[in-house]
Amino acid sequence: xxxxxxxxxxxxxxxxxxxxxxxxxxxxxxxxxxxxxxxxxxxxxxxxxxxxxxxxxxxxxxxxxxxxxxxxxxxxxxxxxxxxxxxxxxxxxxxxxxxxxxxxxxxxxxxxxxxxxxxxxxxxxxxxxxxxxxxxxxxxxxxxxxxxxxxxxxxxxxxxxxxxxxxxxxxxxxxxxxxxxxxxxxxxxxxxxxxxxxxxxxxxxxxxxxxxxxxxxxxxxxxxxxxxxxxxxxxxxxxxxxxxxxxxxxxxxxxxxxxxxxxxxxxxxxxxxxxxxxxxxxxxxxxxxxxxxxxxxxxxxxxxxxxxxxxxxxxxxxxxxxxxxxxxxxxxxxxxxxxxxxxxxxxxxxxxxxxxxxxxxxxxxxxxxxxxxxxxxxxxxxxxxxxxxxx
Length: 391
Prior knowledge:
Elements: E1 6-12, E2 25-28, E3 31-33, E4 36-37, E5 44-50, E6 60-68, E7 74-83, E8 88-90, E9 106-112, H1 121-128, E10 151-153, E11 156-161, E12 166-168, E13 182-183, E14 197-207, E15 210-219, E16 222-226, E17 236-241, E18 248-256, E19 260-270, E20 276-282, E21 288-290, E22 301-302, E23 312-317, E24 323-328, E25 334-340, E26 352-359, E27 364-369, H2 371-377, E28 384-389
Parallel strand pairs: 8-18, 12-13
Antiparallel strand pairs: 1-5, 2-3, 2-6, 4-5, 6-7, 9-11, 9-14, 10-11, 12-20, 14-19, 14-22, 15-18, 15-20, 16-17, 16-19, 20-21, 23-24, 24-27, 25-26, 25-28
């Protein structure tokens, strides 16, 4: 098998024997299939079979080819087992909805602390969750291509990048495939180094149906997944490199069952030394083009999963007096909930803060305020709530 969809072989004439292309046969899984022969060149005939549908990922199949001469004799056979490559599959249920196409680009969330050098992508996930480093030295004023200074998002510093991911700790350098690297937002950190940096990149990419070839050039490791940002167990692994390296490519292929916009999450890590990352697709002619480089035919990428406003969307009271509160949220963001029994109080600092470290549950977050807390806070028989993003 020479690709995900083609099987090819070659037959050669030899002394006293001339291959008959029309009589030569190919069997896949014991079933004869169509075989297309090329024009004979210097006694060599190339045979190709195009699969009706790609083999399933990582599946095994038998093959047997019977080479027949012009006298009708089988002059050679070859058989064996082929194993289809492993590739990701994006099913329609993984698509995003309500995409805000007026916000192109990527969300870049970063942490940097040279005291903690991650040795694996598992360490990177812990670092992004704030479980390794006590302090984030990423520089909020080092904007690079971002729309503005970084804001605190839990243990991370968040930037919005409206252009492409071709980032380097040394802006203007040319690590990887694309020249004129953009300054990596937040890195080097306030400690003037890039060691111990980890980042989470979130975007929503418009993929065509069929097999897509994508690449990540990174220094050091990375992992790319597709699917629900708030459901790690439901995401589809597309590609990864789990070791230190200089700026190098990892190329991978995945099958998109239905064209659409899919959530993409990439984690990146830097141990020490150089720090860079590029995210790109590869066209049929082999040209590499960065995600969201629309002038050169790049795939469209959006940094927002919709224009839903930051509002309380539901509030209900249970029979025991507990109050459930739901609001539109953003993955990675933390929130505070405040309460007051009088809307006339416009000074927010005088509202009662119920919880100042509520972690986002994804696109929507719900908490329950106990009846005891409600009764304690109100003297008027009424209670009002506010939800505040934590910076």
